[in-house]
Design brief:
single chain; 1 helix; 11 strands; globular
Length: 124
């Protein structure tokens, strides 16, 4: 019900946009998020936004570089990543969780739906 795409290889300082297509149900009342998992690392919160509303939250290392957005009519969630760094290399996942607030949005265990992940590799 969530399908992420857009990953690839990019050089340090470059930009990449990810997309997540939502299908199969309505996500009204849900928080839509991006997480990532680098090699040998735990899953890390990247960004989140409410499906119905304009709030957006970011992980500390993403602020000012990443932007989450959505198109409700198209049932799409996007992640624009700028000024990419080698440490941004990871598999990026989109996720949907019901009724989350800011403090719980960073917890991957609160999310019910996950996309399959898309690999982003940033070369130095």
């Amino acid at each position: 019900q969530l399908q992420a795409c857009g990953g690839g290889l990019v050089q340090t300082g470059g930009s990449l946009g990810l997309s997540c297509a939502a299908s199969g149900r309505t996500f009204s009342g849900y928080v839509m998020a991006w997480f990532r998992q680098g090699p040998g690392k735990e899953r890390e919160f990247v960004a989140a936004t409410r499906w119905s509303g304009g709030a957006a939250w970011y992980g500390d290392s993403m602020k000012g570089r990443f932007t989450i957005s959505k198109n409700n009519a198209a049932k799409m969630v996007y992640l624009q990543m700028n000024n990419l760094k080698p440490e941004d290399t990871a598999v990026y996942y989109c996720a949907a969780g019901p009724g989350l607030i800011r403090s719980s949005a960073e917890d991957p265990t609160k999310y019910d739906y996950w996309g399959q992940g898309t690999l982003v590799t940033v070369s130095s």
